[in-house]
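Checklist before submission:
- one chain only
- standard amino acids only
- sequence pasted in full

Submission:
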Amino acid sequence: MNEALPKNNIFKVIGASSLGTLIEWYDFYIFGSLAVIIGHQLFPEDAGASALINTLAIFAAGFIVRPFGALVFGRLGDLIGRKYTFLLTLVLMGGSTFLIGLIPSYKTIGYAAPILVLILRLVQGLALGGEYGGAATYVAEHAPKNRRGFFTSWIQTTATLGLFLSLGIIVITKNILGAETFGDWGWRIPFLLSIVLVGVSIYIRMKMHESPMFSKLKSEGKVSKNPLKESFNNKANFKMVLLALFGATMGQGVIWYTGQFYAQSFLENTCKLDFNDSRYILLWGIAFATPFFVIFGAWSDKVGRKWIMLTGMLLGIIFYRPIYQTFLNDTSIENLNKSKLVSANQGSAKFTPITGTEDSLITVETKVSFENGSGYTEIKADTISFKKGVIGGERILKDKVLPTPIFWKFVGLIFFQILLVTMVYGPIAAFLVELFPTKIRYTSMSLPYHIGNGVFGGLVPFIATLIASFNGSTPLSGLWYPIGIATLSLIIGTIYLSNKRDENIND
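Returned file contents:
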């Protein structure tokens, strides 16, 4: 029988577990939040758009190996216990993040830079693959049966709060150092700061006790001797693993990474929004939406987990394209030029010789601002031939600043997307814990979670950006990937998932 802990003790368990998990998510997501800047550091200056795609591929690599981390650390968690396993994952994550902050740029060590970062991203992915299952299992095995959705939902907030923390520290560091210094070396500070956060979390986790359910299992000599075999060779259990993956975590994963990571990438790279504006929009959206993880987690204790999660998927399928079309429309040059012009400050022309020719590229940067607070930087780039004069050029807009009403409209649209994240993600820890028996729970729940989130979800920014770069595609073409995956998961979940709540998890 699952004895409920006193309320103050259960919140100590949640606090200790959540802090470490939050820091691991922070470590994991700094990279994605700085993808554009890191791309300039890891690849040649003339790499262009391929630098971003290659950087997103390195970012995605950390997600791809998460299922392997789930197998390795899930097995350890079911053999030696929850506490020491996710203590180990915390050390691996923190060490890898710190080292990324120390790796020299492409200019210094060439292609060794992206290779070393890729290796460290793989270690991060393995560590995160072992973290989440341990933390969710640990809290669930302390929680009373009728409040499991509520208590595990606190762990669910840590992924979004980790992103919030990474964005906040990035913005603060950039504002203190200035854009040029931050782009040169200041981007390393958020990575290096990780070692302090990890040290605090390790100290707290060292004081934690083992899960009472696992301790009881161990004292009775019932610990699994081969968690992998019992999880995946057992036909009934493997069926639940597949159902959890295709009916729940796959759709949940793409909703999560579209609403937070692809949204940020789209605003910055497709809409060309100012660095700070894009981060502030996401920060406000996260701040307003985060309490709903707990609200939907608690609600799932009363009405069940299934329909809350599937409704979140359905709303994403319906509203993603209209939302992202609105982003495009409201950041168009026609919309930004509606107000009265205040200033247009033109910088001096810069001449850059074009390798292998007698031609040069002349670029002129103009900062434009309007009465309503909107603005942008316009770059005119022309090719100059000494024989033919101007032979072609292009006009590039970047660093767009939104007028206040549009800024808050975007905050609302991001809030709505993260609200969908809270619907699919808030109840899912309790849902997964209730599917599997104690002795193989860590292994069994970790694998579908990390395939759904790490592979299907984590690849959203990379695959969507890649699809949108194909000839004949539109800026919205990339959305068909998360919409398609969410639709498939919605259909499977509707047909095959049961509406679980308050399940006995002591077996």
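Reviewer check: The beta strands are 341-346, 350-353, 360-370, 375-385, 389-401.
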